[in-house]
Amino acid sequence: MVIRSKKARQSRELPLLSYNLKKLSEEAQNCRNCDLWQNATQTVFGEGSPNACIMLIGEVPGDQEDLQGHPFVGPAGKFLRAKLEEVGIEMKRVYLTNAVKHFKWERRGKRRIHKKPSVGEITACKPWLNAEITALKPKIIVCLGATAAQTLLGRSFRVTQHRGEFLESTIAPYVMATVHPSAILRAPDEDSRHEQERQFLADLKKIAAIRV
Ligand code: URA
Predict the structure, then answer these.
(1) Per the structure, how many domains does the chain have?
(2) What residues line ligand 1, using a CB cutoff of 6 Å?
(3) How far apart are CA 17 and CA 30, in angstroms?
(4) Which of the residues 45, 79, 125, 138 has the least number of beta carbons within 10 Å of its own beta carbon?
């Protein structure tokens, strides 16, 4: 059960007093803290073992995630899962989530195209991410892309400058930011895709090498 004070409701904050991932996930299904729920099928909360030591944070669920109700099950998610396997990170060690928990999109023909969440939407969703971190206490946090990185590390953080570095942080013993897998899938040509993939694998290998 999540308890919100009247003051918190009025200020649209969510002081989440229940730090149990299953309960948080249930409670998040009714989240109305911003307007994104109106055009989304459902809340896509984080998933993984409650004992996972690695938390990977993306931006926002995509079309498939919205329809299926699970994070990272579309093309970018399949790519990410394949790369985790390639470097020897088992899924039982991983918790997958997003900075924003409702799909944001616009219609283009028959397709629903992903839209980047606004700062207001990211801020509205942040209590859920904070609660997930508090509940899970991951040893390692990996921010996938600028939205996740800036949500946790501040808006001046640049993935382009610090990708693959272990960062000083009080949030977890090991914190790293790298590119979002969908950026690799969108690479303009084969050569740059290969290069981006190589760097992404190098970042994941650093995570795989940590013994916690
Ligand atoms: N991209 C994300 O950032 N998260 C998902 O769950 C899927 C795609």
Answers:
(1) 1
(2) 58-62, 65, 71-72, 74, 76-77, 98, 182
(3) 16
(4) 79
